[in-house]
Amino acid sequence: MSGTLVLVRHGQSEWNLKNLFTGWKDPGLTELGVEEANAGGKALADYGIKFDIAFTSALSRAQKTCQIVLDNVGQPNLETIRDEALNERDYGDLSGLNKDDARAKWGEEQVHIWRRSYDVPPPGGESLRDTGARVWPYYMTEILPRVLRGETVLVAAHGNSLRALVMVLDRLSKQEILKLNLATGVPMVYKLKADSTVASKEVLGDMSCAH
């Protein structure tokens, strides 16, 4: 048996609440988002987990979630590496727009394709495949080696950067990953085998509240 990898999507952000495309923009967490991060942290504390290192993105909503989780497990000063390789996917020209306004401008079907297709990016932005193209190498070179050494690693990031990781871990097809939504603040605990495949996966909370 090898190490443990814990993935947590950040709590609700101010722009999630306002139904805006966020991407690389940097709004903070809402009160609910802080509560979600605390709930995830408490679930990990109850689980009895202790981390060796944490990774998060260059965006404050993920960093704040990461810190709240670490506070809850009693490791507020744990080494934390921040890297934009783990950022949310870049929504390009959609960033900052209300999702309903975007549908009015480009049409419901086109916006749905941008949001939910695997490899069609919005104007000036990234598709899920593009997001994976920066997440996967970072995971392989920076995160996975630590897990394979037996470390317990926290990754606090975003819906799409984590979906790219889950796609690999859970061996999901392009069609299957499009149906997957990750709930905010709900930890996923992966135990990895020595060959980097998944030995077990536990979700510490309710994934049905994904939005």
How would you describe this structure to a colleague?
By secondary structure, the chain is of the alpha/beta class. It has a single domain, classed as Rossmann fold (3-Layer(aba) Sandwich), CATH 3.40.50. The protein is built from 8 helices and 6 strands, in the order βααβαβαααβααββ. The chain has helices at residues 14-17, 31-47, 60-72, 99-106, 108-116, 128-148, 159-169, 174-178, and strands spanning 4-9, 53-56, 80-82, 152-157, 188-192, 198-203. Helix 2 (31-47) crosses helix 3, helix 4 (99-106) crosses helix 5 and helix 6 (128-148) crosses helix 7 (159-169).
What integer is the average pLDDT? 95
Instruction: Find the CATH topology.
Output: Rossmann fold
Order of helices and strands: EHHEHEHHHEHHEE
- The helix content is 40-55%
Number of strands: 6
- Proportion of β residues? 5-15%
Sequence of strands across the biggest β-sheet: 3-2-4-1-5-6
CATH architecture classification = 3-Layer(aba) Sandwich
**Number of distinct helices:** 8
Gyration radius (Cα, Å) is 16 Å
Structural class call reads: alpha/beta
The tally of structural domains comes to: 1
Superfamily (CATH H level) name: Phosphoglycerate mutase-like
Low-confidence stretches: none
First-residue to last-residue Cα separation: 34 Å
Largest sheet: 6 strands, mixed
